Every structure is written in structure tokens, then in C-alpha cells.
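Help wanted!
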Amino acid sequence: MPRKLPNIIITGTPGCGKTSHAEALCEQVNGLRHINVSEYAKTKGCIDGYDKERDSAIVDEDKLLDLLEPEAAKGGLVIDWHCCEVFPERWIDLVVVLRCNNTLLYDRLAKRGYKEGKIRENIEVEIMEVLLTEARDNYDEHIVIELHSENVDSLDENVARLAQWVSNWVDDHPEGVDTEL
Ligand SMILES: Nc1ncnc2c1ncn2[C@@H]1O[C@H](COP(=O)(O)OP(=O)(O)OP(=O)(O)O)[C@@H](O)[C@H]1O
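Answered by r_m:
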């Protein structure tokens, strides 16, 4: 069955606003489903250990992809994760890379109680544009967009823009898209 809604990845350094954007977008557009991959992996038993150095859970990516495959085939996924390269290109219609300036990002991560080392590591990831490079290296450049997420106005503008993009995608694909192709 072709999917009648696009699949979107929202990626970016932790704290950039992926979950805030994904939740708001799914509220605005009927049929979109938010997959917060960190939480999904925990509830579906896809955790394969703990990385002490990074202070984060290790996700069993093969198991995660097996579980997500039928969901991706239905379409309408908004995949929220700080990593995008694992998702097959044929599943994905748009990759949104959220960006945030370092001072704001520092404050957001500090507010969460992250340790200084983990904050610094994430700020470096943002400065080095690691997630943007990962997205551009793994997906067609035409489907990768960079959006700034620094205040509530930019969040609202981004979500309105993404909702419009979904509406255009639906108009442009009246027969849907087959995920197998
Ligand atoms: N555009 C924005 N304007 C104001 N506050 C924002 C914006 N984006 C994110 N925030 C705030 O920053 C914090 C982190 O946001 P959020 O949880 O959405 O980020 P995330 O990228 O999903 O993080 P993680 O990868 O760790 O899950 C939250 O307190 C959120 O309210």
C-alpha cells in the first residue's frame, strides 16, 4: 500500500528543539505520528547497553529498524532523534536539521542538569555542524533543510512552514508513494 503522508526526520544536537517541533507539527497536521526514538527504543526493548563515557543508552539499531519498517510503510512518521543516518533513504521524504546558537543551547542543557563535560561535547557537535553534515552525507541534498530554533517565534514559523510542506507533498503525490521503491 503506498503511503499517503510523507515521513519526516527531525534531527539536531540534543536541546535544539526536536521534540518541541515534532509535537507541535503532529498537533497541527492530522495523521502525523511523533516517534521520539529514545523513548520508543526504551519502551520497545531496543536498548543494547549503556555508554558510560557518553552518559547515554545504546540503541539496538537493527531491532529499531525492524520495528519501524511497517510504520514507515504506512507513512506520516515524524522521527525525532539526534542521529539520522540509520533510516533508509527510501523511507524518508524530508530531513529537518534544527540549529541553535551556542549560548542558548548551553543554557537549555544546563537547565536539564547535564554535566559540564556532556554540555561541552554537545556544544562542540553543534559548532562542528555534525548533524547537518550527517544529513547531507546520507540523503539527497534536495530533501535536507536547516532551520533555526532559537525562540518561540522561530518554532511557530518552522512548524507552520513544515505543515505547509506536508500539505504540498500530499497534493503532489495523489497516488501516494511506495516505500519499497
Ligand atoms: N525554538 C525554541 N524556542 C524556545 N524554547 C525552545 C525552542 N526549542 C527548544 N526549546 C526548549 O529547549 C528545551 C529542549 O527542547 P527539546 O526537548 O524540544 O529539544 P530536543 O532537541 O528534542 O532535545 P533531546 O535531543 O535531548 O531530546 C526545552 O525546554 C524546550 O522548551
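OP: Thanks! One thing I noticed: The chain has a mean pLDDT of 96.
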